[in-house]
């Protein structure tokens, strides 16, 4: 049986404010959320600061605290969850930085954005770069969030946007180039 119809139905029910459906939805996609969290925490130093389970649970708390969940399908929900996880991660880094008055927690930028992994990039730098990209091109910033933080494939993004896979790939290359320039060597 394909789990997609069950998730879509849970999303519909959760959007209507059904708390048990929201809980069941999170349980249904939990392993995928952990995969996204592991990917976000790719840097060695970050792994020691926050475990994937902690990141998923922090995001789940934020998601469960919302009055309703508005996503059309599994891919859209996972992309949105990725955005929430990014915010939880950023909050954690800021809190840790304030508590320790440290220079910041470093995270490796995985190869889906950079051609080579980087160990000198912190979460706040990436967040600030994405905010600047959103000012220049909201579409490219959304693409980065969906692809990197949401773990969506090119095909899923194309379907969601109603565009071709070739268009998404072209925009992805442009977004990566912009981020590479913005984040420096």
Q: Describe it for me?
A:
The chain has 185 residues and is mostly helical. It has one domain (4-183). It contains ten helices and no strands. The protein has helices at residues 4-15, 19-28, 30-40, 44-49, 52-64, 74-100, 123-136, 138-149, 154-161, 165-183. Helix 1 runs antiparallel to helix 2, helix 6 packs across helix 8 (138-149) and helix 7 (123-136) runs antiparallel to helix 8 (138-149). The relative contact order is 0.12.
Structure characteristics:
mainly alpha; 185 residues; globular
Low-confidence stretches: 107-112, 114-119
> How many structural domains does the protein architecture include?
1
Overall spatial form: globular
Q: Which bin fits the share of residues in helices?
A: over 70%
Alpha-beta content class: mainly alpha
Distance between the termini: 47 Å
What fraction of the residues are assigned to beta strands by DSSP? under 5%
Radius of gyration: 17 Å
* Number of H- or I-type helical stretches: 10
Number of distinct beta strands:
0
Mean model confidence by pLDDT = 78
């Amino acid at each position: 049986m394909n789990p997609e119809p069950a998730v879509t139905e849970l999303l519909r029910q959760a959007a209507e404010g059904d708390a048990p459906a929201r809980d069941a939805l999170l349980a249904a996609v939990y392993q995928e959320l952990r995969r996204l969290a592991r990917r976000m925490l790719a840097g060695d130093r970050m792994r020691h600061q926050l475990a994937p389970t902690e990141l998923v649970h922090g995001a789940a708390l934020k998601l469960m605290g919302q009055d309703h969940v508005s996503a059309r399908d599994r891919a859209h929900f996972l992309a949105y969850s990725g955005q929430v996880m990014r915010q939880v991660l950023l909050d954690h880094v800021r809190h840790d930085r304030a508590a320790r008055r440290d220079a910041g927690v470093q995270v490796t930028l995985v190869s889906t954005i950079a051609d080579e992994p980087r160990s000198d990039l912190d979460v706040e730098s990436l967040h600030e770069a994405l905010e600047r990209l959103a000012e220049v091109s909201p579409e490219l910033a959304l693409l980065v969030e969906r692809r990197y933080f949401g773990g969506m494939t090119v095909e899923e993004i194309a379907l969601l946007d109603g565009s071709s896979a070739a268009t998404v790939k072209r925009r992805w290359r442009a977004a990566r180039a912009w981020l590479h320039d913005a984040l420096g060597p």
